[in-house]
Amino acid sequence: MSDIKAKAQGLEPSAGPRNVTELVKDNGNIYESLAIISKRARQLNTELKYELHHKLEEFAVSSDTIEEINENKEQIEISKFYEKLPNPALMATEEFVRGELAFRLVEKKGK
Fold first, then answer.
1. Which terminus of the chain has a smaller tally of CB atoms within 10 A, N or C?
2. Beta-carbon-side half-sphere exposure of residue 97 (alpha carbons within 13 Å)
3. What is the residue-wise DSSP string for the chain?
4. How far is C-alpha 61 from the chain's CA centre?
């Protein structure tokens, strides 16, 4: 999963204008392109969420009593790093434009 972080390192974390012709060059349909990008964005979001929760579980302290929660600097740094990552939709769009996504379109029968 660390490859997600590597891909995100070079991306601008804020959204910018996109050339629509880049999005439709493979299939000619903007709606299909957006559907592919949104599915990939959901995959990336799930992977990032799993990775973040897995890393934060290391800091979890299970106790039966209610105590004051101590701030852990490493935990805060990990959380800040994930907050600064670009939106999964931006990462998925960049992957799509670069041609890094493999997809297939299923034709409906009966047409």
1. C
2. 13
3. -HHHHHHHHTS-SS-----HHHHHTTTS-HHHHHHHHHHHHHHHHHHHHHHHHHHHHTT----SS--PPPP-HHHHHHHHHHHHSPPHHHHHHHHHHHT-----PPPPTT-
4. 28
Can you say how many angstroms the Cα of residue 16 is from the centroid of all Cα atoms in its chain?
Answer: 17
Task: Give the separation between CA 67 and CA 17, rounded to whole angstroms.
Answer: 48
Torsion region of 15: left, alpha or beta (phi above 0 gives left; psi -120 to 50 gives alpha): beta
| 90 contacts 11 by C-beta, under 8 angstroms | yes
State which amino acid sits at residue 51: E
Alpha carbons 96 and 36: distance in angstroms, whole number: 8
**Per-residue pLDDT tens digits for 18-41:** 888 888 887 888 999 999 999 999
Token digits of residue 87: 């939106």
Q: What is the pTM of this model?
A: 0.73
